[in-house]
Structures are given as C-alpha cells and as structure tokens.
Amino acid sequence: MAEFDYRGGMLHAEDVSLADIAAAVGTPFYCYSSAALTRRFAAFTDAFGGQDAMVCYSVKANSNLAVIRTLAGLGSGADVVSEGELRRALAAGIPPEKIVFSGVGKTRDELAYAIAQGIYRINVESEPELDAIGYLAGGRTVEIGIRVNPDVDAKTHEKISTGRAENKFGIDIGRAREIFAKARAIPGIRPVSVAVHIGSQLTDLAPMRTAFTNVADLVRELRADDNTIDSIDLGGGLGIRYDGENPPSAEAYANMVLEATGNLGCRLIFEPGRSLVGNSGILVTRVIYEKFGLSHRFVIVDAAMNDLIRPALYEAYHRIVPVAQPEPGVESSPADIVGPICETGDTFARGRDLPPLAQDGLLAFMSAGAYGAVMSSTYNTRLLIPEVLVNGDSFAIVRRRPSYDELLKLDSLADWQQSV
Asked: Containing domain of residue 336, as a range?
C-alpha cells in the first residue's frame, strides 16, 4: 500500500496527513487514495494490452460515487447487481454501453429499468429470468450472457465461494447448451455471451484456470450448435494481500486467462472489485479507552462492527497500525482491538502487538477499501461514517456523516401514535 506510508512520523494518504483529516472530519472515517485506484486500474488494463478486453468495475466492492467516478474517468465500465448500483454507475458517469448487470435475484422492475437504459449486457442466472426478460423486451432485442456454474471449488472462504454446484449462482454448466437453445427461441432475446464467476479473494490461479478452460470448451460447443458467441465474461475474484497472502499479479492472471481461453476471438469481460479498491482505502479510528482485564489488554476504539463488518462476518484479518509512528525501542504488547457495540462479535483483532496507546490516539485499519463502508449499517443507532477521497495534497469528503436528526427522520410513527 505505497500510497499510505509514514512521513515525519505520521501516517499519510498520498501527501495528506491522516491526523489532519481526522481533525477536520472526526473519527472514524474511511479514506481512499486516487493514486492507488489509478495505479491498480492501469496495472490490470496494461496486462491485457492488445486484447479486446472490457473492464467492468464490480460496484459492490465499493459503491461510493467518487470512487466509481475516478474509475470511470480511467475508462472503466461497471458490473452491477441491483437497480441501485446501476443508478449509481450511471450517476457516476459510466455510459450504459459499458454496464453489465449480474446477480441471481434481479426483479422484474430492475430488469425493466436495465432494458430501458440500454445497458451492454444482462447476465442471466436462471430459466425464470430468461422468461422475464422475454416478457419485458417489448419488441426490443436484449443481448444477454448466460452465467454458468462450473462446479469448481475456489478454495476461498465459504461465504464468498460462488462456483460450486451447491452455490446459488448460475446455471449448471451441463445444461448450458439446452438453455442457450431455449434463449434463442425466445423473441427479444439474443444470447451472445457465457459468464462465470467462482468466488472472491482468490489467491490461487488453479481453480480459475479450470473454470475458464471449461468455459472455453463450452463456447466451442455452443458455436458448433450455431450459437453466435462474441464474448466471455470471466468475472472477478482476484485476491489482495491482507495477512501474508501472495496473490497473483495482473500479468500472471492475464497469462493464465489467455492460455485457458485460447484463440476464441471473443471479447474478454472482467469484473474486478477488491483487487482495484481493497488496498486503495483504509479505516481510521480513535482510541476511546484502554482497559486491562485479568488476562487481556483491550483497546476500545470508536469504530465498530457496523462500520467494518468483515472481521465479525468472515473472521477477516486487517493489519492495524498507529497513525503516529511509534518511537524506536518502544515495547509492544498483545491487545484485543474492540468496538463499542454490545456484542462480543464486535472485535476487530485479538492478541495484536501494539505499543502503548494514549486516549484519543489514532489507529488505521489497512486494506479496508473493499467491502467496508459499502457493507456498513446504523446498528445501535450509530451514524454512518464519512468517506474521504485524497488526490495528491488535497482531500474531499465524498460521503458526509449524517446527523442524528436525519437518521431518526428515516422512521415515522403510526397515525394512532401521533398524540401519545
């Protein structure tokens, strides 16, 4: 995470001190680096230089409009999984012809909106969805991809594995030829693509190679059945380094893709998310108290599981560092870093070596740019926290902290309660 480093004893985001941001916006807050987003997007696209490749950023990883706009300015499209994400992508400046709509449970209203916007591709995941699109096409021709489930174990966390037979995603690859034939027979539908995505935070290329090879074989079979297949959507899933992982480089991934898919003459569509934004953002929090029990040192911070749920949900690891660089020779001791929510699950880390921390001292949770703010909630009636985008020596608040009045106004009393 080169864009987040110590300068003069203080952790910076690019050329901005995180302590200065904390003083301006309060804590906790998320901070994203424009330079990191740019560098990672360029690395991915450069790896496929000379290929007909379309990168559609996976909006679910981080749906902040300023993040999407940054990537849109670099030429990215968008992969969306809801009408809300589609509206965000459009609002951020991504043209409809660069948007792919994925997801196992698209409603008819969502499909109708996507068709009306003229987006590039809808990736279909079930026969009822095919029927719904045919009904909604209304005299238009809707180009679709069909997402197949290759029954490949991605060897990732169970909750983010999507390519096994028991997972809810896609159509069994053994039925793909039958489903393509059905799609061709439905007026208003033109099936032109095969899509696959086997999971997230993948650090081993072998499962992807197996899945992509199977997809390439399927494309050849579909063409033999007189289907016109002009593209393959290989999804996303490339992992990042959280705790000593050794994820493949963009170049290694690109080499594997080209070897596995062969010379099909297809456009290659990719949906990277975490690999672009995960290490492009951090969460900054403030120490409320240090508490010493009989056997544990607890560092209680003002961020909580509603702000960053990954440790509670996935047992996920985030490196945690002081914003003020410790002096050389300062002894560290193990500590549990916990939030203020009244659940034991509100624990970010156990037994982490940290130096002595003063009340109001700042900590940074690294690698928090993906599946952080986007999965946050107002549990315990806690306010959503600000998001900040840094660009060189400037920063801007790109999601402000709402007030308690704004939060409470989301609720309303029933008519018969008004006089109580």
From this structure: 4-31+278-408
Strand ranges (E), 62-112 = 77-80, 99-101
Does residue 287 sit in helix, strand or coil?
A: strand
CA distances from 270 to 157, 173, 416 (A): 21, 19, 53
Q: Summarize pLDDT for 102-147 with one digit per residue, the tens.
A: 999 999 999 999 999 999 999 999 999 999 999 999 889 999 999 9
| Of 110, 99, 104, residue with least CA distance to 133 | 110
What is the per-residue burial (b if ≥16 Cβ within 10 Å, else e) of 303-313?
bbbbbbbbbbe
pTM above 0.85, yes or no: yes
- 293/341 same-domain check: yes
DSSP string computed for 142-190:
EEEEEEEE------S-GGGB--STTSSSSEEGGGHHHHHHHHHHSTTEE
Note whether 101 and 249 are same-domain residues: yes
* The pair of three-digit structure tokens given for residue 329, joined into one six-digit string: 């020779």
Q: How far is CA 145 from CA 58, 75, 175, 294, 402, in A?
A: 17, 22, 14, 59, 40
> 288 and 333: one domain?
yes
d(CA 179, CA 207): 24
- Percentage of the chain beyond pLDDT 90 is 84
Q: Is the pLDDT of residue 166 over 60?
A: no
Catalytic center residues:
342
- Residue 419 in domain: no
In angstroms, the CA 237 to CA 256 distance is 14
Collapsing DSSP states into helix, strand and coil, what is residue 109?
helix
Task: Calculate the alpha carbon distances from 264 to 7, 176, 260, 268 in Å.
Answer: 49, 18, 10, 10
Shared domain for 297 and 369, answered yes or no, is: yes
- At 239 the three-state DSSP class reads coil
End-to-end CA distance of the chain: 55
Last residue of a domain, one of 211, 237, 272: 272
The angle subtended at Cα 76 by Cα 256 and Cα 218, nearest 5°, is 40
Q: What is the CATH number of the domain that holds 103?
A: 3.20.20.10
- Residue after which a domain boundary falls, among 252, 272, 292: 272
Q: Model confidence over 239-289: pLDDT tens digits?
A: 999 998 899 999 999 999 999 998 899 999 999 999 999 999 999 999 999
Residue 157: its pLDDT value, please? 45
